[in-house]
Design brief:
single chain, UDP-N-acetylmuramoyl-L-alanine:D-glutamate ligase, nine-stranded mixed β-sheet, four-stranded mixed β-sheet, 11 helices, 13 strands, 36% helix, 23% strand, globular, binds adenosine monophosphate
């Protein structure tokens, strides 16, 4: 099985209570693919500018990520500036310099067309839908979005939601999308918009999956499932936690080749584990230095933490 992810490949400038960093490697597709690469061959479609170095690309290729779908355009790469000084759980966007991302028109290399899993990271829903349509044979589609698209471009987002097997959003986005303040009711309303399953993320407090009768093809509406995060002593930079969760979750699912409620729940545990690495250092540093043994050790810790 292999995963195709489409999304931002970026430089991030960040300030958190642990310090400041300028232009570290980031982007939703970057964090996602690094996390997913531990489980399943992962291919990226994105765009970068002339400032994206061979060293930046090597961070991905060292983990076996296929970067042939990263287009190089004239100009600068997408650059996001964010601050977590107010609240470590919420990124305040200080600047979004779209640069080459402004004219991004995803091109899927022929070598990627046999990908069985597709992840539509947070980009313009029109592009998400376009990529979805270009990959009619995929077995499973996951997707993410953000407040901007929910608020200002809802009509463009709705057709994407109808295509998704799993939507991953945070609790504030679920409330915004549904108009419901109660998260459980919000999840039910989001399911009515089309995704078969929705995972709602609560930052450092974990995440919960809400299922519909369509989640597993058995006509049964399974009960919600909640997973914790590890209780970390060091959180330097929350950027990419959500994308790393998605990468671990989707990567594990793809590695199994079949979908059962138990595999889904296990995938959420791996998602939580990968998110825990992402936040321990700035940018991609910690995921670059993670091993499969580290992942299994944390998986066990998370089991111990959650098990009665
Ligand atoms: P998260 O996992 O939600 O923390 O995602 C963080 C990543 O999203 C950062 O590395 C940013 O480069 C990227 N990002 C921030 N804003 C946008 C945007 N408007 N579109 C696409 N990617 C973004």
């Amino acid at each position: 099985m292999s995963i195709l992810v489409v999304g931002s490949v970026a430089f991030d400038s960040l300030e958190t209570p642990s310090g400041k960093r300028e232009r570290v490697l980031g982007g939703a597709a970057t964090h996602f693919s690094l996390a997913a690469s531990f489980f399943t061959p992962t291919r990226v479609v994105g765009v970068v500018g002339e400032d994206f170095s061979a060293g930046n690309e090597k961070v991905l290729t060292d983990k076996g990520v296929d970067t042939r779908g990263i287009e190089r355009a004239e100009g600068k790469s997408f650059h996001w500036t964010g601050s977590y000084l107010n609240d470590l759980n919420t990124a305040d966007t200080l600047a979004t310099d779209l640069n080459v991302f402004a004219n991004f028109a995803p091109k899927i290399p022929v070598e990627y067309e046999d990908s069985e899993f597709l992840f539509l990271a947070n980009i313009d829903p029109v592009l998400q839908l376009d990529v979805r349509k270009k990959m009619p044979k995929v077995k499973m589609v996951g997707g993410d979005t953000m407040n901007y698209w929910i608020g200002a471009h809802r009509e463009k987002l709705l057709p994407v939601l109808a295509e998704l097997d799993v939507l991953l959003i945070n609790d504030a986005e679920a409330r915004q999308l549904s108009g419901e303040s109660n998260v459980a009711r919000a999840a039910e309303k989001v399911l009515e918009l089309g995704p078969k399953t929705v995972i709602i993320k609560f930052g450092e407090y974990g995440s919960a999956a809400f299922f519909s009768e369509r989640s597993f093809g058995d006509g049964v509406k399974h009960k919600p499932f909640r997973v914790h995060t590890l209780l970390l002593e060091e959180v330097m930079d929350p950027t990419g936690a959500g994308d790393s969760f998605a990468g671990g979750f989707f990567g594990y699912l793809a590695s199994q080749g079949t979908l059962t409620p138990e595999i889904f729940r296990t995938a959420m545990f791996y998602g939580s584990v990968m998110g825990s690495f992402a936040v321990e250092r700035f940018g991609t540093e910690r995921l670059e230095n993670t091993t499969k043994a580290d992942i299994e050790e944390r998986f066990q810790q998370l089991r111990d933490l959650s098990h009665l």
